[in-house]
Amino acid sequence: MDHHAARRDKLRRAVKKTEAEALLVTNFTNVTYLTGFTGDDSYLLVRPDGELILTDGRYTTQLEEECPGLELSARRPGVPMLDAVVKVVKRAKIRRLGIEADSMTVALRDKIAEKLPKLELVPTSGLVEELRAKKDRWEVARIREAVRVAERAFAVVRAALRPEMTEKFVADELEHQLRLFGARSSSFPNIVAVGPRAALPHAVPGERTLGESELVLIDWGADAGQYKSDLTRVLVTGRISPKFRRFYKIVLEAQTRAIAAIRPGVEAQKVDEEARRVIADAGYGRRFGHGLGHGIGLEVHEAPRLSAKSTTVLEPGMVVTVEPGVYFPGWGGIRIEDDVLVTRDGHEVLTHVGKQLSEITVG
Predict the structure, then answer these.
(1) In DSSP terms, which residues pair with 307 in a beta bridge?
(2) How much of the chain is in helix, strand and coil states, percent to nearest 5?
(3) In sequence order, what are the residues at sequence separation of 6 or more whose Cβ sits closer than 8 angstroms to the Cβ of residue 6?
(4) Residues forming a β-bridge with 222
(5) Residue 305: Cβ within 10 Å count
(6) Considering 135, 164, 213, 345, which has the largest number of Cβ atoms within 10 A of its Cβ?
(7) Cis bond leading into 304, ω under 30°?
(8) For the chain, which residues score pLDDT lower than 50?
(9) Is 47 helix (H, G, I), strand (E, B) or coil?
(10) Fold of the domain spanning 137-359
């Protein structure tokens, strides 16, 4: 059995625990996870006795190549997806249909209810996402490749950094190198933030040059063909000032302790707490205003979350980012991020870009 079929069987068991007889998967990323189909604009109906992908003529050849043997229903040009859903639900004689409440629009739900007044729609949340949180060996291998591509691209860009380069130039060059090393694209728009702009966790690269400040924050990742990576490093573009040294050591210690806490059976909020305590004890708790990390896989942000309120218990196969940070408007910010796999007996840091103070000076 291939890994996509195994995932669908796991989902069937999860659906069986609800009041639904079948599940209509409308989140395109979830459809990809369950089938291997890399297109979009397609739904998947998962029944107890099988599954059916609802698509259109643009994707029939692609589906035959990517998902051989998967039953499909291709709607004709001009036939709306709503009509296709109604047709297959009627044909399958489904009385209680599970829907993905986190992705289906209210408009689509209401239209299905109007077309099929005797059908009971059963809202579900996170059925596929919970499966996605635990990666199998195949998925971990894809993430490792995304890490490898990201690290190779970063090494090339870092070696060529010059004071006159702008944030935007560096971000664009990083995108270029990611693609040259085999990425489909970056995992998200690359963040390159010089000096005070590093105080913005999601800064948009602009025209500030590297030579205008002592530090530059770079947050990047590779989409190496569906699966993604996500890293952040802060580089020193001049002399390491006492202020930078103090803040950097605090964040690095916070990350080190958090990573050390990652193992099966630990609640995600406990890992967050390890990092948050270090920063709070140093007197900068209010400067750490976001969660410690997030799951990564088909999407750059997915389950599980590492945050102060997350009660998720870590399990082998989960891959999470660990990215504590402190931010000071007018001066800048420090964030250090790595991708970490939860293993059977602990954890494995998948990313290997140097982050000690002796390794982050440019030039």
Answers:
(1) none
(2) 40, 25, 35
(3) none
(4) 186
(5) 20
(6) 135
(7) yes
(8) 1
(9) strand
(10) Creatine Amidinohydrolase (3.90.230)
If we measure between CA atoms, which residue out of 31, 25, 85, 75 comes closest to residue 55?
75
Residue whose token pair is 């999470």: 320
Report the distance separating Cα 296 and Cα 314, nearest Å: 14
**Tokens standing for residue 351:** 């990313």
Structure tokens at 184: 């489909």
Q: Which pLDDT does position 221 carry in this prediction?
A: 98
Mention every residue, 6+ apart, whose C-beta is less than 8 A from residue 68: none
* Residue-level pLDDT at 40: 86
- CATH number for 3-132 (one of 3.60.110.10, 2.130.10.10, 3.40.350.10, 3.30.450.40): it is 3.40.350.10
Quote the pTM value: 0.94
Selection from 152, 185, 202, 148 nearest residue 323 by Cα: 202
Measured between alpha carbons, how far is 116 from 110 in angstroms, rounded to an integer? 10
CA 312 from chain centre, in angstroms, equals 17
Quick one: angle between helices 242-260 and 268-281, nearest 10? 150
Q: Nearest-CA neighbor of 302 among 149, 133, 184?
A: 133
